[in-house]
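Work Package 3 committed the consortium to producing structural models of liganded targets before the mid-term review. Because experimental data for this complex are still outstanding, the team generated a predictive model from sequence and the ligand definition alone, so that downstream docking and mutagenesis planning could proceed in parallel. The input record is reproduced below exactly as it was submitted to the modelling pipeline, together with the SMILES string for zinc ion.
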Amino acid sequence: MRKINTRSFRRATRSTTREINRQIVLNLVHEHQPISRAELARQMGVARGSVTPLVKDLLEEGLIYERSSEATARGRRPTLLYVRTDDRLAFGIDIRTSGTSILLGDFAGREIITERFPTLMAPAELVAELGSRVGSMVEKYSDIGEFEGIGLVVPGMVDRTTGVVLHAPTLHWRDVDLRGSLAAAVGMPVHIERDAVACAMAHMWLGDNGALSNNFVYLTVSDGVGTGLVVNGGVLRGASSTAGEFGHVPLNLEGPRCACGARGCLEAYTSNPATVARYLGLELDSPDAYAELRSAGIEVGDVIDRARSGDAAATWALWETGRCLGIGIANLINSVSPAQVVVGGEITNAWNLIEPAVRESIRERALTTVSADTPLVVQPDEDRLRLRGGTSLVLAPVLRAPEVA
Ligand SMILES: [Zn+2]
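The resulting structure, written out as C-alpha cells with the ligand in place, is given here.
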C-alpha cells in the first residue's frame, strides 16, 4: 500500500474512474491487439456494455481504430481493435562520445530511418546539428504521419523537473540544458533520460515480457556501468531523481580508482576500460588513467576476440569481470528483488565465456535460493535498445497509468 503525499497529490474527480479504465482498455489493446470488444470485456472481468463507452472514447480521440476481421464459420465478422501506431512518429536520439544516432520510428517500434554522425562535444553545436537533421527528416517523411516528439538519451544524470543534464562525465558536460534548446530549435516536445533508464523503458514499453517487465533491473556494462531500476511498473527515481547509480557501489574500499574519483566501485572492476586494464596489467590509480588506457588502442572487443582464440590472459581478465559482475548483480538482487536482470552492453558478446563466473558469484551472495535463481536476460543489441528507449519516452506518456492521490 502506498501512503498519500499530502504535499503533492492529484485529487480524484468524477471522471477519475473512467480515466483509469480507459487507460486499462488502451493498454490491453496495445498488449493483445488485434482484440475484440468481447475479449476485452472478458480480460477486464466486466460486461461488454461497460467496455463499449470506453472504446468509443478511445476511437473518437484517435488512439485506437477498428477493422473487420475475416468472417467466422457462422458468417459473423467481429470488428477487432488496434492501437493507432503506424502514423504516429517519434524520434529517438542517442548521444554518446563514440557517436550520435537519430532514429525515426513509429509507435509500434518500427524503424523508418536511422542516421549516425560524430558527436559534437559543444552542446550548442550539437543542438544546431540535431535541429537541422531532424528538420530535414520532418520534411522528407511528413506524408507518413504526425511527429509527436523526440526522446533524448544521454550518458549522464538528468534533473527530472528542468530536463537539465547535471553531469555527463564522458562528454565533460555539467548543467547543460539540451532538452530546452532542442525543443526551441525543432518546435516539438522533447523528453530526456539517462541511458540505462531509457533502455529499461524500452524493455518495459516495447518488450514482450508480459508481467515480468513490471519488476526488473536493466544493467548496462559498457564504458561505464549503470542501472535502470523498474519497480511495480515505474522507474525508481528517488528524492533527487538520480537513483540507480549502482555502478558506484563499492566492492572494495582499497580497489582501483573509478572514473567518478572514488575507489573500488563496481564500475572500476567491470566496465570495458576496467576489463582492458586488467588484461594489460595496467593499474587504474587515477581518473586520468582512463585517458591513458584509451591511447593503448585496445578495446574490450579485442580482449573478447583474444580470449576466443585461446589467450589465457584475456580469458582470465574476462572471468574476473564476470566474477565481479556477479557480485554486483547479487547486490542488486538482494536490494530490489527483481523478477529478472537484463544485461546489456559490449560485455554481452563474451556472455558464454563469463556466465559461469557470474552465476557462481550470484549463488555465493544471493540470500535465498529463489533469489539465487533470478533469471538473467542478455540484451545483445543495446545500441538499438537505446534508440528505441528514446522513442519510448514519447510513447510512454500516452500509455501510462493515470496519477491520482
Ligand atoms: Zn565510481
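Reviewers should note the following from the model. The pocket of zinc ion is lined by residues 248, 258, 260, 262, 265, 267 (CB under 6 Å). These observations will guide the Year 2 experiments.
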